[in-house]
Amino acid sequence: MTQHEGEEQQVLPAIFEHCRNVYNLMEEEAKLVDNALIWEGHLTKLFARLHLSVPYYTSVTRELKRMDCIRQRRRGGGNAASQWEVVMPPSEELFLEHRTYLTNRKKSRIERVEQQVRELQSIVAKVQMDNQSILDILVEREKDSA
After folding, report:
1. What are phi and psi of 71, to 5 degrees?
2. Which domain holds residue 87?
3. Would you say residue 93 lies in a domain?
4. CA-to-CA distance for 42 and 24, rounded, in angstroms?
5. CA–CA separation, 143 vs 137, rounded Å?
6. Averaged over 93-120, what is the pLDDT?
7. Which pLDDT tens digit goes with each residue over 30-54?
8. pTM for the full model?
9. Which of 15, 38, 92, 117 has fewest C-beta within 10 Å?
10. How far is the C-alpha of 22 from the C-alpha of 17, rounded, in Å?
């Protein structure tokens, strides 16, 4: 058993396996530069080679950085390749530490709903103002025609 005796074994989300696969490929392709293992390339292309869909890009990269498995040395963009230091492989312990993956997903859902509520409140306020303006115009026209 990989966890303490008596504890229930936890099934890790698929994102953890994606983190391991991305890290392993980065490590395999990295070169030793000034006593650091450096991977250079386009992460989007690396994800494509692993047949990972685009939505995983942000969450996998965020988790690898959070666990301090990789550190960005240079941003890429366009034709410019990014540069990443390959630090250490992801582990179950690091992944489960603080459980940020799950709380970030819940938090982002809540934040999206809160944003939608704010947008709807703004729309309702505008409709109410427009409605009042229309009523004011109708009252003025009725006074003018009387």
Report:
1. -135, 130
2. 14-145
3. yes
4. 15
5. 10
6. 74
7. 999 999 999 999 999 999 999 998 8
8. 0.61
9. 117
10. 9
